[in-house]
Amino acid sequence: xxxxxxxxxxxxxxxxxxxxxxxxxxxxxxxxxxxxxxxxxxxxxxxxxxxxxxxxxxxxxxxxxxxxxxxxxxxxxxxxxxxxxxxxxxxxxxxxxxxxxxxxxxxxxxxxx
Length: 113
Known about the structure:
- This protein is mainly alpha-helical.
- It has one domain: Orthogonal Bundle (Rna Polymerase Sigma Factor, Chain: A), CATH 1.10.1740.10.
- The protein is about 70% helix and about 0% strand.
- It has four helices and no strands.
């Protein structure tokens, strides 16, 4: 597939699914900026994996799956940020990178349950 064909296929997929994927993401994220970031990451993944996207209506389902995983990754990252007790670049135990001791006990208990 030539670069022109790839661009054309991506454009067709993007135009056909943009509104539905945006609505899906916005229902799950309060911030418009975060929703835009998740949407951009979803379509960036689609571009990188264009050859893996199924044809026809299956492409829509594939994109919803990507968006779901992007949102799950964002939630996990946010929970790590919330659990972090130290300031940027340092931890309560004096390490320069977060380690197991850098997370609060409440977050540790919550992650085990």
